[in-house]
UniProtKB/TrEMBL annotation:
InterPro entries: SecG (IPR004692). The gene is secG. This is Protein-export membrane protein SecG. Keywords: Cell membrane, Membrane, Protein transport, Translocation, Transmembrane, Transmembrane helix, Transport. Pfam families: SecG (PF03840). Its main location: membrane.
């Protein structure tokens, strides 16, 4: 059980990292401070972005459930 949760935690961690990096940047950051953030985003959020948001949220929920599960197993069994 513990090994399974650890494997799922590792895979969800990798997936969440990948999905977060696939997101399009929304803020200007330091580039807007020096005039690099002059781009205008005329297109709204697309279906792909909405689906990417959903997958990222699902992956984050799986990650949190694995962490809580491992902590509960460690507290009550170990």
């Amino acid at each position: 059980m513990v090994l399974t949760l650890q494997i799922v935690l590792f895979l969800s961690c990798l997936g969440m990292t990948m999905f977060v990096l696939l997101h399009k940047g929304k803020g200007g950051g330091l580039s807007s401070l020096f005039g690099g953030g002059v781009q205008s985003n005329l297109s709204g959020s697309t279906v792909v972005e909405k689906n990417l948001d959903r997958v990222t949220i699902i992956c984050a929920i799986i990650w949190i459930v694995c962490i809580v599960g491992l902590n509960l197993i460690h507290a009550y069994v170990g």
